[in-house]
Amino acid sequence: MERVKQLAAHFTSSSKGLAALERKSPDDVVITFAMRSPLCKAKRGGFKDARTDELMLEMFKNTIARSKVDPALIGDICVGTVLTPDATYHARGAALTAGFPDTVPVQTMNRFCSSGLMAVTTIANQIRSGQIEVGLAIGVESMSENPDNGGPSQSELIASTPAAKDCTQRMGWTSENVASDFDVSRKDQDEFAATSFQRAEAAEKAGIFEREIVPFTVFRKDPTTGERTRVTITKDDGIRYGTTSESLSKIRAAFPQWGKSTTTGGNASQITDGAAAVLLMTRRKAESLGLKISAKHVSTSVTGVPPRIMGVGPVYAIRMVLEQCGLSQDDVDLFEINEAFASQCLYTIRELGLSSDKVNVNGGAIALGHPLGCTGARQIATGLNELDRRNGKVLVTGMCIGTGMGAAAVFVRES
């Protein structure tokens, strides 16, 4: 009964606000490990011949090797992935092959672009409710193996509802709708995208990403013989050095049939393969194991928006999670907002009145790529790495979600 009372009081007024969130409790849900793979261009990059389960395997193996936690202590694993058929088969097999004992269960999660964050949230909620003490969240996507072919056909009973029909439309259409409805110009989108590339280039050259990337050893296929050999990938391969808004302005429109034709292959997220992992546990358990705590997960919010402008989702989700936590935007040191399209990310920044100096400071999905199931966990690894480097306190991650949703989460760095 006492435990129930503690949980019920989790978000009372006395537990809101930055000062309250900085207080430490044995029941806090904390992160002790957050890392990612290199992000590689689908069909052409370093992971083009790697299967989804092989990416899972590498992420699991790296977690066991680097987290300093006995894999038998993991109470549950949640894998976020979007396009992977038979995902639970792959996740369970990869976990067992990596060295997790058969006593460790696995589940899979799909809420489109937020799936990595939803995996983290699922594990955090299991810990917060007392179901487990330690859990692992993975986000993974091979868009080389499983290309996104758009939404499925609908029953005429469903398709007769306009909003339901909008759920199956291509994401480029929603980008053009946001650009048109909210007057986000092609010029502004190209300038935003150029900044993403420039920031990612600067971060890579400065070695910033080396603190969050774990090398991945995968198979590469010889195009002539078909022979598979092992290679180790250590760096992102989608960052285009020397990108400017002028060079991006020369790229043709990707969707000339829709809106004002402002979305291009240069100002939208790259189609990418990758994986990320976040290990969570109670503060009590982390301290008993002598582990360094990186941050604590405070809360996650998810909301719905009209499917035709799904890109506006982060606006409402970020407002919601900040209100839940009793925080203002000024309390936040860094925002990691997924750059699904420059149109929607730029709109989000403008609508919330955010300083660009706080948003995606090392570039975002336009420069790094957007492996759908991976991104939500990748943003945590990237954001916490930079938060630690800057000695900051609060990270907010957010993203839009296909079919018309948005998600956001708050993390407080350990002092």
From TrEMBL:
State any single GO MF term.
acetyl-CoA C-acyltransferase activity
Query: One GO CC term of this entry?
Result: peroxisome
- What Pfam families does this protein map onto? Thiolase_C (PF02803), Thiolase_N (PF00108)
Q: Which UniProt keywords apply?
A: Acyltransferase, Transferase
Q: Which reaction does it catalyse?
A: an acyl-CoA + acetyl-CoA = a 3-oxoacyl-CoA + CoA
> Which BP terms does GO give this entry?
fatty acid beta-oxidation; phenylacetate catabolic process
Domain Thiolase C-terminal, first and last residues per copy: 292-412
Specify the domain of life of the species encoding this protein: Eukaryota
* Protein's UniProt keywords contain Protein biosynthesis: no
Protein family (similarity comment):
Belongs to the thiolase-like superfamily. Thiolase family.
NCBIfam families from the entry? AcCoA-C-Actrans (TIGR01930)
**Name of the protein described by the UniProt record:** Thiolase, N-terminal domain-containing protein
Species of origin: Mycena maculata
